[in-house]
Amino acid sequence: MVKKKVFEEEIMPEFNLKKKAVEDLLQKYCLDxxxxxxxxxxxxxxxxxxxxxxxxxxxGEAKLLYLQDKWYLITNNIEITRLEKEEKLYKQDWxxxxxxxxxxxxxxxxxxxxxxxxxxxxxxxxxxxSDDFARIRANLTPQEGDxxxxxxxxxxxxxxxxxxKVHPGQTEFEIAxxxxxxTEKRGxxxxxxxxxxxxxxxxxxxxxxxxxxxxxxxMLILCGRKDGLICSITRxxxxxxxxxxxxxxxxxxxxxxxxxxxxxxPGRSLRDVFQQGIDAxxxxxxxxxxxxxxxxxxxxxxxxEFVATRDVQDLVTIGQVYAWNPSIxxxxxxxxxxxGQYENExxxxxxxxxxxDVDIRGNKYSRPAILEIG
Length: 374
Description:
Blueprint: H1 2-29, E1 33-38, H2 39-45, E2 59-67, E3 70-76, H3 80-85, E4 95-99, H4 107-112, E5 117-119, E6 127-128, H5 130-138, H6 142-163, H7 172-184, E7 189-197, H8 199-203, E8 217-226, E9 229-239, H9 244-263, H10 270-283, E10 296-299, E11 321-324, E12 327-328, E13 331-332, E14 335-339, E15 344-346, E16 355-360, E17 363-368, E18 371-373
Parallel strand pairs: 1-5, 3-4, 5-6, 9-18
Antiparallel strand pairs: 1-2, 2-3, 7-8, 8-9, 10-11, 11-14, 12-13, 14-15, 16-17
Helix pairs in contact: 6-7, 9-10
């Protein structure tokens, strides 16, 4: 009885908001229906359920189809039991369309015959409205904000414990294993796990782990997923004294990161936020570094629902989550933040991690420093 009450009071209001968002989208494009194929969209629409089996794929084993007053969940007989019993989707207003895994035929095509249908992915048969739908996923409900707080705390704790277990002589594969172990044992799935050590930090912005052994300097990058939501965090560990070059870059980058976070407030356009960050790069003496990697953007059911640039005019709104990731060759700063009415909340903050204090026009900010050991 208690579980039913929780579902009705917490999940159904969110579920109904999402149905309304879809109905508005159908009206905007004069569509008869909307097909959601991506696992991120599936998680959004079902308030956190998982359709994927293969983590490496953007598409799951179930699709959602909205046709006027009908709400279909289309899957095979392998997946339906888990979706009903563990994901508890029988409590939501879905009409289940289940086919045996060994039978062919496109049930979606049959349901959509003669109709104008949009979809959240590139398609030859349906209208691609994936850009619009990414914006919908990025506009989070208060319930999603609460789930993001839990996710951010877990990812921060996992990163902290993994980083403190790093030591010279470990391979990047072994360090990636630490990140995965600390994250997964806490109930969060690792979807991005990048590690670089020593000179590889200076050479690659997206370093896949290798068998290279750590000598002094390690970069750990994590994107973790829970209830469909994904947050991002990066931290560095250095054994021995930092060089002046790395220390100076870390201090400069902390100011750039603080500028991005400061600028990301309700009503501001992402174009203006982006430009404020780029101006900060110039102010701290690294005017060209922003060109070497994207700077981040709104997070949600993808690590970045879309990337901010000078051309993106979307407005920041209360309740959104952002992950900025400015970098200067050899260092990077990345946390996930929630946009509040009065201030921003750093969801992946690690309480006992060393910080760099930054003053932005009289306001004090703390950004993560490099953890120095020995």
